[in-house]
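User: Second chain of the day. Same drill as before.
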Amino acid sequence: MLAAAGTIALSACGSDTQDSTDNAASSGPSSTAASVACATGDLKGAGSSFQKNIIAQWIKDFGAACSGANIDYQPVGSGAGITQFGANTIDFAGSDSTMKDDEQAAADKRCGNPAIHLPITAGGIAVMYKLGDVKDLQLSPKTLAGIFQGTVTKWDDAAVKADNPGVTLPSTGITAVHRSDSSGTTSVFSKFLAAAAGADWKLGEGKELKWPASVQGAKGSDGVTQAVAGSDGAVTYAEVSYATASALGIAKVKNGAGEYAALDAASVGKALEGASVADSGDLKVKYDFANTTPGAYPITALSYEIVCSKGNDAGKLALLKAFLTYSATTGQAAADALGFAPLPQSIAAKVTTAIDGLA
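Assistant: Same format as last time:
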């Protein structure tokens, strides 16, 4: 039986330093800028487990600079976070995908105004695996589609061999593992396969899919990671830091330029070069998963915080704006070391402007 990850609460309360000046870049993932615009109070968020590791760092560092700021985030999955936001039980939701029409309607009703998406971090979704001594694996979108639809069942299948010329592959059976909860990571992964594998991908797009019985499920990014770590021949998809923390292999994935691209900050940055976002309002990012940019890692995601444009709790608004501003500016310095990529400056500038306008 596959292990299911429970939720965790990440909380921060600060030291005695408090200031309201501009946000300078921090020097690393465990450092905090000497001056951070602070506010006090309690704030609750929930959602994306993709964001878990970087938001934990932001909470820690923001709390170290801002006395009296208490922030709690539960990485329960994008779908659950969106549901909680619509039910008005949290102050912001983390999501790796934009809301569906019914989710948007519930969020707008809760806010009494439009709820908006704020891109807050970027990163690659790793195809991570455990396969004996095989440390350098390459996979094309078509092969990935077969693996996660249960039609490619052995690691020495002809499709896998074609992606890996000269590599000795074992005949080990493939155990493909998917997210069993409503997941923005699944949404991004399925959108990539729909765009890049085309007709070879038949399961559609979304936070939840009708997976074949041969593909196993586990809850949360922790759950799928644990499932793969405990089973030779297993493979899944999750934010890259889960793979590195568990010493799992990370496959190179064939991009639209025909290259097998490794997942790193540079290749994620290349993938985002063609991303576009509106100048104001709801900052949903448009991104082509089949783009042909050389050097781009194709399964790249921008993850959002969902907030009320207006109608936020007046007693929490100052802290919400301070924490989100920190995350979109100073906090971006933590990205590289944690396996994420800093927001492109063109997007970050629009995000900070939108945060300034929250009411």
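The CA atoms of residues 8 and 74 lie 5 Å apart.

User: Great, on to the next one.
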